[in-house]
UniProtKB/TrEMBL annotation:
InterPro entries linked: ADH-like_N, ADH_Zn_CS, GroES-like_sf, NAD(P)-bd_dom_sf
The organism of origin for this protein: Trifolium subterraneum
Catalytic activity: a primary alcohol + NAD(+) = an aldehyde + NADH + H(+); a secondary alcohol + NAD(+) = a ketone + NADH + H(+)
Domain of life, source organism: Eukaryota
Description of how the protein assembles with itself and partners: Homodimer.
Pfam families: ADH_N
Name of protein: alcohol dehydrogenase
Alcohol dehydrogenase-like N-terminal domain location: 47-176
Lineage: Eukaryota, Viridiplantae, Streptophyta, Embryophyta, Tracheophyta
Spans traversing the lipid bilayer: none
GO MF annotations in UniProt: alcohol dehydrogenase (NAD+) activity; S-(hydroxymethyl)glutathione dehydrogenase [NAD(P)+] activity; zinc ion binding
Family designation: Belongs to the zinc-containing alcohol dehydrogenase family. Class-III subfamily.
Enzyme Commission identifier(s): 1.1.1.1
Amino acid sequence: MATSKVANGNGLSETKGKTITCKAAVAHGPGEPFVVEQILVHPPEKMEVRIKILYTSICHTDLSGWKGECEPQRAYPRIFGHEASGVVESIGQGVSDIKEKDIVVLIFNGECGECTYCKCEKTNMCEKFGVDPMKRLMCDGTSRFSTIDGRPIFHFLNTSTFTEYTVVDSGCVVKVNPQDNLSLKHLTMLSCGVSTGIGAAWNTANVHAGSSVAVFGLGAVGLAVAEGARARGVSKIIGVDINPDKFITDLINPTDEEKPVYEGWGLTVLLGIHSSPKLLPIHPMELFDGRRIEGSVFGGFKGKSQLPNLATECMQGEIKLEKFITHELPFEEINKAFDLLIDGKSLRCLLHL
């Protein structure tokens, strides 16, 4: 049985077609500390890709899922994580746009490029690989992870990145080309949070010069919204958060006294996965005069076809990805990284595998 060790940095062929034994941070119950243990990662099946994870970070959605805040979504043992970058170890039958040794970013909201949704300009969802919080196995109904004694381990949000190796659908893998001014660890930020925030400002809200924006919640996603709004030259950004430490940032730059919301055309954009319908107490008449509420998944970006363009803009200095990485830790300290997020002390803690 193959191990996670690779003979040289230029090739991963030693493990192709074999079951890999490697380390993963496994959650065995709601809120229980992660256990870094040896697991088995099986070869990719048709239209799947196996990836050696190099960097992964922690999003609040991982925190909510780990806690089991939404009972119907619970599944244990499970490998959480959905923000990561790495290198392709092997590909399954039928994969043509990704090859071994490619440097890639993983995305939780995939794109097959062929279904009705992917061909529609009105949505970035995908019939085959779109995000589904209830999904816990691969598309064929089986897991690519198992314990050393052969018991299945569940997947999470199409990705499962808290492991040295993972297997994902090919539609959830985006090839990137790191440059001198933007390393692979910085590009990891495009895997979820930063793309979601920037896209909410650019694609969903379509902010522009003269717009005013209020951001509720100044975590990584909220600050990405603010950074996206700043990059588009909005006239005012108002930040709202119950944690006063979150205001120590240069992303929030109010410049005049313009009203943030107008009757007739005010737009509220909802981001993230929410555990209860009780979180939105609103009277229908609040929308009577033209105000709108709109959801946004992955910032409206079609991941495989549009994320490379966002990466290019970041490389050109449009967005400073490095600002979102506030901590870096070795993978074995994942529980410490979660504590930083729970205590409101980090935006993104990058784990090195």
